[in-house]
Design a protein that fits this description.
242 residues; alpha+beta; 2 domains; five-stranded mixed beta barrel; 14 strands; 28% helix; globular
Length: 242
């Protein structure tokens, strides 16, 4: 058989599999404000960025607010258990699919941004810029309080702008940046402690762990709160052996 023809046949056989791999559909279990588990696969919603469950914001009254949990709960109430139809647009370095999804024909990313629970992720797309402006003008979701952009929070950037309608009190930036590492758990959902041992390994400790109470949560020690074992292991941590 001529080689070009063999390659054509091979491509024809593989094409359906590739096309199928680029589509993910099924009932969705909301994990975060921008992450959903579909058929056992963790899918990140494309074009948007929502606060992680352990990110803190400030409420309209200037009080600590678990905005990451609020974003997750808002998405869960709106779409948990419903069928997500997703088109994969890229994959992360870790191999995680990033996809644009609809639920009952609705662009779920647009709903999140317009409702104020996520930002337009302009590093990758400007598709939801107008929806973000609408949410900001309406003081919807995150915009009713004070917060920093999720991408700046992950980097702990001290140069970040504080967003939202609430005038932040003195020292607000330190509160917002240190929320995942400070002495107080950001929410009742996020009580797993992560620390770095003398060998440079990231170790996580559940509340039932023997040394849990002895782990001091300090930014200078490189500690961090996690909301689940999956989150801790995704960050490269392993469970303590004692």
């Amino acid at each position: 058989m001529p080689k070009p023809f063999a390659l054509f046949i091979a491509a024809a056989v593989l094409l359906p599999a590739v096309a199928q791999a680029a589509e993910i559909s099924g009932p969705g279990k909301v994990r975060d404000g921008d992450q959903v588990v579909i058929g056992g696969k963790l899918v990140r919603l494309a074009g948007i960025d929502a606060p992680s469950r352990d990110q803190l914001c400030l409420s309209p009254k200037g009080e600590r607010w678990t905005c990451g949990v609020a974003a997750r709960d808002a998405l869960a109430q709106h779409a948990d258990g419903k069928t997500f139809n997703c088109q994969v647009v890229r994959t992360t370095k870790a191999g995680r699919p990033v996809a644009k999804c609809t639920v009952d024909g609705e662009d779920i990313q647009q709903w999140l941004v317009k409702s104020g629970w996520a930002l337009s992720y302009t590093k990758f797309s400007h598709a939801y810029d107008a929806d973000e402006k609408a949410a900001r003008d309406a003081h919807a979701g995150l915009w009713q309080g004070a917060f920093i952009a999720p991408w700046d929070w992950r980097l702990r950037s001290k140069k970040t702008t504080i967003l939202g309608a609430t005038k932040p009190p003195h020292g607000a930036r330190n509160i917002l940046l240190a929320s995942a590492s400070g002495p107080v758990a950001p929410s009742p959902d996020c009580t797993i402690k992560g620390n770095v041992n003398t060998a440079g390994e990231c170790i996580y400790h559940k509340p039932t762990s023997r040394w849990y109470a002895r782990i001091q949560m300090k930014v200078s020690k490189g500690t961090r709160w996690f909301c689940s074992v999956e989150d801790a292991e995704a960050a490269g941590c392993r469970e303590t052996r004692r």
